[in-house]
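User: Please work through this fold.
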Amino acid sequence: MRSENEFLRAVEQQVREHPQAPAHKAPNGLTTTYAELWEASDRIAAALAARTEKRHKSACMVAGFLGCLKSGHAFVPVDTEMPLTRLADILSQLGEALVVVAEDMPDALACALPESDVLDARTAVAAAGSPFVVPDRASWVTGDEAQYLIFTSGSTGRPKGIEVGADNVARFMDWVRTFPVIREGGRVFLDQPPYSFDLSEYEVVGALATGGCLHAVEREET
């Protein structure tokens, strides 16, 4: 078992070595640097920690993933394009989960969720200049703890959540970095699969662990 989250450490190393390198490029051309992504995830982690004491592509969503890990929580990526019944079923299986949003929710879903169960990551990131307390590194998701859950399509029954641990991601990251073109670092990754699809971890982990840039595209372009 590893003592720290190796993926977070790899991203942190890129932040230190290449803070102004592009980490994410949105479909509208807006670029987010590694330094900006890391600070955004710090703010989200702080907001999550304060609240959890008991198919859209955006840098805010990626920062949300990192923020969850920094605050000691696994993340479950879903897309607003999913049918409401599927989203509701996933939420019902997660128990008392906090919903972190990076874009406006469908009205039906927003009305069904208590305000206390929702954290708008955009608000947390936009609070520039306001004080916040980043969770201690001891809070990071590590070892056998779940780093994320991906839900199956449910085509053969009820969707099932598949847990992937921090050590699993670390081993995958080590393997991805054996490919010379990726190991060289600074590559552009076409950020095309929806984050609710496990294939997206190839882009997220491969890019952010090696100083690459996630180049997102709109669904229509895909």
